[in-house]
Design a protein that fits this description.
The complex is a heterotrimer. By secondary structure, chain A is mostly helical. In chain A, the strands form 2 sheets. In chain A, strands 3-4-5 form a 3-stranded mixed sheet, with helices on one face. In chain A, β3 and β4 form a beta hairpin. In chain B, α3 runs antiparallel to α5, α3 runs parallel beside α6 and α6 runs parallel beside α9. Chain C has a 6-stranded mixed sheet with strand order 6-7-8-3-9-10, with helices on both faces. Chain C has a 4-stranded antiparallel sheet with strand order 2-1-4-5, with helices on one face. In chain C, β4 and β5 form a beta hairpin. In chain C, α3 crosses α4, α3 packs parallel to α5 and α4 crosses α5. The two termini of chain C are 35 Å apart. The chains are: A mainly alpha, B mainly alpha, C alpha/beta. Chains in contact: A-B, B-C. Chains B and C meet through α1, α4, α5 and α10 of B and α2, α3 and α4 of C.
Chain lengths: 419, 217, 248
Amino acid sequence: MIGYRTELRRSPLRWWFPLLVLLDLAAIFGRGRWWIGEWPMTSVQAQIPAFYLAPLLAAAAAWAAGRTGRNGLRDQLAAAARPRPQVEFAQLAAALTYGLLAYALGAAVAAGVSLPTAGPGFLWPGYLLLGAALMVSFAAAGHLAGRTFPGGFATPVACGLGGFIVIAWAAGPQQLGLFAINGAPFRTVSWPALAVRLALAGLLLAGAVGLRRPGGRSAGRRALAAVAFGAALVVVTVALTVTVPLQVDRAAPAQPLCTTGAPTICLWPEDRNQLLRAQAMADRMRQLPTALVTLPARPIAELGLGRGGSRDPEGFYVLEGDMWDPAQTMAGDIMEASRPQGCPDPAVSAFTPEFYRASGELMMWLTMRIYGGPMPATMHGGPPSVDLGAVADVVRGTDAEQLAWAGQRSEVIHRAYCG
Amino acid sequence: MRTAVDAPWWTGPLRHARAHDLAPVALLLAVVAGCEAAFGSLTLSFPLQHAAHSAGFPMRRELPIAYAALTAGSLHSRMADLETAAAAVLARYEGLQLAAMYAATVLLVGGVELSVSGPGTAVVLVRALLVWTGLALVSGRVFGPRLAWILPVATVFPLTYLGEDGQGRALWWDWTVRPPSDAAGWTLAAVTTAAGLTAFRLTPWRLRTLRGRLAAR
Amino acid sequence: MDPVVRVTGLTQGYGARTVIEGLDLDLGVGAFGLLGPNGAGKTTLLRTLATIAPPGAGSLEILGRRITSERSARRARREIGFLPQDFGHHPGFTVHDFVAYCAWLREVPARQVHRDSLRVIEQVGLADRRNERMKALSGGMLRRAGIASALVGSPRLVLLDEPTVGLDPAQRLEFRELIRSLAEDTAVVLSTHLVEDVSAVCREVAVMAAGRFVFRGTPAEMTALASPGTQGDTALERGYISVLGAGR
């Protein structure tokens, strides 16, 4: 414990700690505010800084571990009564303390800002542990590199810059799955996958503090330990690839949150901060001109609540806390329900560019009516050949003007289906 | 006239190169250039500031950091304690060394990118190299040459995470993405290069003179 | 004749901490001993005399030239041999490489570097090891190589910070002899904790405490200041302890 406290006091990270916290908070709050009020998104958001902190910790740990060799302390440590792994662990634990403390502070602040609007629940530990495992793994790898190559320049640079490259190249959710980017409520981190990532962190930690340079009286044992470490690393790496994807579907809740009145919009309980907006959208759907559109009879549900799970083609997704995407899904459902009935299947030639433009414009008009305004600046895309600005102008017009405009598009669609 | 025991003039500069580990530095430059040519197109995925997904871009965009760190890091010497008491010759050779490192890294980045990616990317990455080398020299002066990499590496976060607006357009200061002719990018390169060279020349005596002038105003 | 070193009203510090305050010093040819407890400001004074640390306040003259800028400091360094308390070395350098590199750093003319390096290596007793790598030397040998690096090129001002640390008794005797002969035509400043080294080679001695001189005089004058009952193995040690006690 004395050794750990000494290492804490002499760790180079003690001067950098405020910057680590600043980096953590910048990563959390620099990424928009849409995650506030929803626990899984807040949890992933609190985990995102690990992406940047992990390579920094690797560089710092490599630099600190190399000091033993650079400052000529090898003989002193070799002659120490205390087992070498304890000394190494104290050094690595000091670097980890600063990194993990900054990470925990960021998570606490993220939880604090989410708390007032998020309702029951709290940060999801799976995501937080995933970020912690990433940081421990990289710090331990950096420590091991620093012990092996104690230079004060090339090793920290290689660990820092190389760490960034490795994380960005191979650690993403679709590759080795060492971190998550998206915290949709219908997905959660898989516990077996998390266990493997924690095992990787534990293994690297054990290797960083336990492995010794070959040679000396117990050369055979040291070589055997190195081989065993290498073999275990291969096994864990294979397990990493087997346990991708990192996130799995959650079971739908027995009682999803649903709006009142028909048509009904249902949400995951974690999205309760969207319920008022969903209710307003349902109300606006009811105000659509029934002469032109038919409202869907079935409830409109968020992904994961319907039968298709997270791949339900009829489910909507609250992208980045905005209800634009759900509004588009609802508009699509209305278009489908409003399709002319009783006419023979039209020939392919009936679907002219004019038909597609009319469909697209009507679809966007419905979306804006349901959403309650034009497409927000943070959203992108839309049907091709549709002037979203012109449609927004229509939505701002009188009911009569809108009815006439939409009627013209309905007529084009009707002609394509029924001649 | 040289006597039999005289050493040729170049033994001094050669020892300077050895004290500064310039042979390993040259080897590392070659390794980085090889990585740039062979793996520069690998896609790196970074979280996005504005969205719940990641953005991918080629690894070559970050590699000039390694060249910059090597340039500033090569100014470290294992005999730094004795070199602090050196006459003018050391400053002269360190200046030459820095100029040679600038030239070598610009040629390597420009040459590799010209042959692999084309002139546009080559110009943008040479500009990024100038920005990062300037920052590395400042970092080397503040934290010591062995920690010259700190400021360049610290820019990875804002560049990869905060460098775009809500529409996915690169902000004016993202020197790794802005077009080759972008004035803001070149202004940044000029400012950071000037700051780096100033930091390189900023000895305790010059700092004292500067302080004296500032105090006199 | 101008003194080799003239310091007037020197004040030095690190941040808010003052290490040397209002110090005056004139040094001519001969050996000058600098004694004092840890943290007294000896190393800071030596670094200032070596023109590494510019004076915070006051002035510094070396060989009659006022040192006011980087340019004047670099010019003066050609005539200054400096051995820091701790110095690094390239492990791949031989002893000769190490000394010759230091000669090059001090702009010793190229035609003299090789010959003069061999001369000082021999003076410090490392002639038979001149082609050995620095990493293979013992602590005492490294120290002797350091002393050689400070003497190469025959500088007119030699600043030695703790030069005898790690030397065995025989080597210390040789070192004293070396400094005695050197001091005949060179200004030598010897910072040390070993008062017997000072008494053996220095014509003048100063004791520093808390950034100022609390004594300046000859070793004999310091010996005479020994108070009765003061601890110490030699008369000079007792004088040193007494001076320090009075200074506090």
